[in-house]
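Good morning C.,

I know you're traveling, so I'll keep this short. The sequence:
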Amino acid sequence: MKVKVHFHGILAGWTGVSSSIIDLPTNADYAALLLDIDRRFGSNMPGQLWNHEKKVFKGPILVSGNGRILKAPSDALIKGEKITFFLMVGGG
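The tokens, ready to paste straight into the viewer:
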């Protein structure tokens, strides 16, 4: 199944793309997506953002897909889902 991922702000700079279509196995979950993100973009991401050992984001990353927040590795993905990654930063 295919999902479209979007990386906002500095995440796009670190991954090297603002969006990408990712082809995953049928019934893939958020953990499978993170493994694919590591394979494609992990080497570009700094250690303060990406845990290279566990293949997960560190820190305040908000992941939204089809009107819901993805958090748990077992969260099921939906075919054709648009998944957006935001780095949550404070400021004023």
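Safe travels,
E.
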